[in-house]
Amino acid sequence: MGIGVSVFLLAVGAILAFAIDVSVQGVNLDTIGVILMIVGAIGLLVSLLFLSSLTPYGRDRGETVVREERL
Hints:
Blueprint: H1 3-19, H2 29-53
C-alpha cells in the first residue's frame, strides 16, 4: 500500500466517520470509517518507514570514508 492509497483511506474513513449522517440497516458507518482511518494510518506509517530505509546507493547511504596515514 502506497502513501496515496493510505491518505485516500484516511480521507474516506474521516468522511464516513464524521461527515455522513445516514443510517444504514445492519451497517455502522462510523465504525467502518474508524477502521478505514486506522488501516490508512498504519499503511502510511509502514510506507514512510519503508521509504526511509531505502538509500540511493544501497546500504552505505552514499557515504565515503577516507583514511589518511600519517608518517
